[in-house]
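Supplementary Note 3. Input sequence used for the single-chain structure prediction.
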Amino acid sequence: MRSGTRHTRRVATASFVGTAIEIYDFNIYGLTAALIFGPQFFPTFSPVAGTLAAFVTFGAGFIARPLGSVVLSHLGDRVGRKSTLVASLVIMGAATFLTGLLPTYAVIGVWAPVLLVVLRLVQGFAVGGEWGGAVVLGVEHAPAHRRAFFGSFTQMGNPVGIVLASLTFVLLTTYLPADVFSSWGWRIPFLASIVLIGIGMWVRLGVAESPDFTAVQRSGAISRSPVRDLITNNWREMLLGGLSSTAAPTLGYLMFVYMLAYSRQALGLPPTYVLWLTVAAGVVWIPLVLVTARLADRIGRRPVLLGGLIGIVVWALPFFALVNTGSLAAMIVAYLGGVIAVSFATGAQAAFIAELFPAPVRYSGTSMAYQLGSILGGGVAPIIFALLYARSGSSTPIAGYLLATAALSLVATFVLFTRGSARNGGTASTRPEPTPAVEGTADAH
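The predicted structure, written as C-alpha cells, is reproduced below.
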C-alpha cells in the first residue's frame, strides 16, 4: 500500500471520527431536550409547552451555526483546514462537558435555561465550521475518481454519532431508575464526551494539511476575505447548495430527534421503543452512505442525489401512515425507507457541495451552504413539527412540511445540475483540478 493511500485513509478516519464525536455531542443535547430539559429547565410550563421550549433551546444551536461557519471557514481558507478542525473539536467538547455540569432551574432559577442556551450557542458555533472543513479535508486529499467515497466518511460520522448518542440513552434509561436518570443520570453522556474529544484530537493532529490548500498557499492565492469573495462570485452556488441540503436533515431530525417526543405524546410509546429504532436505523445508515457514495463515483452525483431527494418526497406521507399504527414492524419499515432515502441524498452530497467551489473559498462555500441547509432542515424543523402537532393534533401537517421541504431541495439540486454549477457536471471523472484564484478573488463558474 502506498504511503499516500495510507495517509488518505488516515485523513478519512480523522474526518469520520471528528464528525462522529461532534454529532454525538450535538445529538445528546437533542435527545435530552426531548426527554429531560422541559421539566428540569422549564418546570413552570405544561408538558407540551415545556417540550416546545426545550426544542427552542435545541434550535438555538442552529442560530449560532452561521456565525461559526463564517468565522471558522474564514480561518480554514486563510490559515488551514487542519488547525481549524482541531479548534472546532475543542470548542464543542468544552461546551458539551459544561452542559453536563449545569445546575437546573430548581437550583439557580432563570439562570439555568439562560446558561443552557448559551452553551447550546457555543455548540452551534463549533458545528458551524465542522462539517464543511471535514468534507473539504477528505475531498482534497482524495484521488479525483474517489472524492465522493472519501467525502462520505464525514457523512458516515452523522449516523455513527446518532447511534452513539441514542445507544447511550437506551442504556441509561434501561438500567437507571427513572428518578435517577431524570435527576442526574442524564448528565453522564455530556461528561463522558470529554474522553471522545481526546480521541478525536489525537487522530486529527496526526494528519497533514490538504494538498489543495498547500497549493493555494504556494501560489500566493490565499484570499484576504474568503467570505466576501464567496458572496461576490459564488453566491448562487452557496444559496442553491444550501437549499439542496435542506431535505436530508429535515427527515433526519424528524426520525432521530422529534419522533422521540411525538411517539410519547401521540402514541404513548416509551422512549426506549423509539431509541432502539433510532439505533437500528443508524446502523443501517452507516454502510449505506458508503455504498451510495461509491455509486456516485461510478455513475455520477446527479442520479444518486436526485434519486434520494425524490425518495424523501415520495416517503413523506407513507412514513407517518406507518408510524401512526404503533406497530413495531410498520415503524421498522417506515424508518428503513427513510434511511434509504437519506442515504442516497447524503452519499453524494459531500463531494457535490465541495465541488461547487474553487479551492481558495472552498471551506467557506462548503460550510456556509451546508449550514444554510442545516438551519432550514434541522434547526427550525423540530420546532415547526412541535408547533404543527400542538395546533392540529395530527401528523398530516408535519408530513406536508417534510414533503414541501424535500420538493424545494429537489428543485434547487436540479437547477444546480442544469446550470452546470457542479464542477464535475454530475460525473466523478470529469472534474478538473482546482485552479487557484488571484489574490483576493474567487473564480466564478
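The radius of gyration is 21 Å. The first helix runs from residue 3 to 41.
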